C-alpha cells in the first residue's frame, strides 16, 4: 500500500477524530488550495479550533508536523493553470484521481488473500444493497463465467438465510461503501458463527464490517472529490473487481472456462441473426 494522500488519510481516520478535529478536517477540505499559505495560528483561527487541535489532527493523519501537511497539500492541489477544463476533462480527472487514490489504499497482501479465498471456496456468496448490490451482481456474473459456484444476494432477509446456510469451506464477500450497512453486518455475524471466511470491500477503515471480516479491501470514497455533481459511488469498487478478474484469469483453467462461455454467447447471437 503506497503513501496515502490527504483525502484517503482523512477518510481512514475519520472515526478516530474528535468533533473539533472533524470540524478542522471539513475546513481543510473546503479550502485545500489555501492551506499551504496559512500559519498554524491562522488555520486554527479560521477553523475556530485551537492550535493544539491542529497539531493533534496532523499527528492522527500521520503527518510529522503542520509544515509537512502543508507541503503535501501543496503538491496534491497543484494545477496546470494553462489547461482549460470542460466536462470531459473534469470527469476524466475525477476518474484518474479516484483510481490513483484507490491504488494507494489497496493492500497487495489482502488482495492476494481474497483471490486465494475465491479460488479455494466451495461456494461464494456476494452481498450488497443499492448501488453496491448492482456491483455485486456484476461480480457474480464474471465469477460464474469462470466456472465458480457463486450467488448474489441483495435482499436483507435473504442475506440472513443465505448466511445461515454457509459453512467453513465457503466465502462471504460483502460490498458496502460505508462499512455500516446493517443487513450485511447481521449476515456477517451469522456467517461468523459457522466459521465462514468473510471479506469486505469498503471505503472506511475501522468500520463495523472491517472489524468482523477476515479480509479487508479498501477503496477511495467519492466524497473525497468534494463535488456533489460527481455521483459515481461504484467506480473504485469496479477498479478492485478488475484487479481481481485480471489475477483470476491468469489461471489457465478459469481463462478457458470464460472463453468457452463467451464463445457460447457469441454463437447464440450469430444464430439469432441468421434466423432473422
TrEMBL record:
Keyword Transmembrane helix appears in the UniProt entry: no
Domain SIS, first and last residues per copy: 114-251
Chain ranges of the HTH rpiR-type domain: 4-80
Top-rank taxon, per record: Bacteria
Keyword annotations: DNA-binding, Transcription, Transcription regulation
Transmembrane region(s): none
Keyword Cell cycle attributed: no
GO biological process, one term: carbohydrate derivative metabolic process
GO molecular function: carbohydrate derivative binding; DNA binding; DNA-binding transcription factor activity
InterPro entries linked to this entry: Homeodomain-like_sf (IPR009057), HTH_RpiR (IPR000281), RpiR-like (IPR047640), RpiR-like_SIS (IPR035472), SIS_dom (IPR001347), SIS_dom_sf (IPR046348), WH-like_DNA-bd_sf (IPR036388)
Protein's name according to its UniProt entry: DNA-binding transcriptional regulator, MurR/RpiR family, contains HTH and SIS domains
The organism of origin for this protein: Isobaculum melis
Amino acid at each position: 500500500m503506497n503513501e496515502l494522500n490527504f483525502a484517503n488519510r482523512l477518510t481512514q481516520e475519520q472515526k478516530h477524530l474528535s468533533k473539533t478535529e472533524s470540524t478542522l478536517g471539513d475546513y481543510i477540505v473546503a479550502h485545500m488550495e489555501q492551506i499551504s499559505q496559512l500559519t498554524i495560528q491562522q488555520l486554527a483561527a479560521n477553523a475556530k479550533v485551537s492550535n493544539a487541535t491542529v497539531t493533534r489532527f496532523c499527528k492522527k493523519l500521520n503527518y510529522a508536523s503542520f509544515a509537512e501537511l502543508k507541503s503535501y497539500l501543496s503538491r496534491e492541489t497543484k494545477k496546470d493553470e494553462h489547461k482549460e477544463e470542460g466536462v470531459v476533462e473534469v470527469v476524466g480527472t475525477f476518474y484518474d484521481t479516484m483510481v490513483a487514490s484507490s491504488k494507494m489504499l489497496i493492500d497487495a497482501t489482502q488482495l492476494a488473500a481474497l483471490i486465494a479465498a475465491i479460488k479455494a471456496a466451495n461456494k461464494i456468496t456476494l452481498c450488497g444493497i443499492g448501488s453496491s448490490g448492482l456491483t455485486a451482481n456484476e461480480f457474480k456474473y464474471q465469477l460464474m463465467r469462470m466456472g465458480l459456484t457463486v450467488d448474489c444476494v441483495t435482499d436483507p432477509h435473504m442475506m440472513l438465510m443465505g448466511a445461515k446456510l454457509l459453512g467453513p469451506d465457503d466465502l462471504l464477500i460483502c460490498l458496502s461503501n460505508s462499512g455500516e450497512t446493517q443487513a450485511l453486518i447481521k449476515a456477517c455475524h451469522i456467517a461468523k458463527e459457522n466459521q465462514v471466511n468473510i471479506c469486505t470491500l469498503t471505503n472506511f477503515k475501522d468500520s463495523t464490517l472491517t472489524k468482523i471480516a477476515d479480509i479487508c479491501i479498501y477503496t477511495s470514497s467519492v466524497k473525497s472529490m468534494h463535488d456533489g455533481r460527481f455521483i459515481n459511488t461504484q467506480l473504485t469498487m469496479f477498479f478492485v473487481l478488475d484487479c481481481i478478474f485480471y489475477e483470476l484469469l491468469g489461471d489457465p483453467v478459469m481463462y478457458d472456462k470464460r472463453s468457452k462461455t463467451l464463445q457460447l454467447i457469441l454463437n447464440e447471437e450469430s444464430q439469432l441473426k441468421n434466423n432473422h
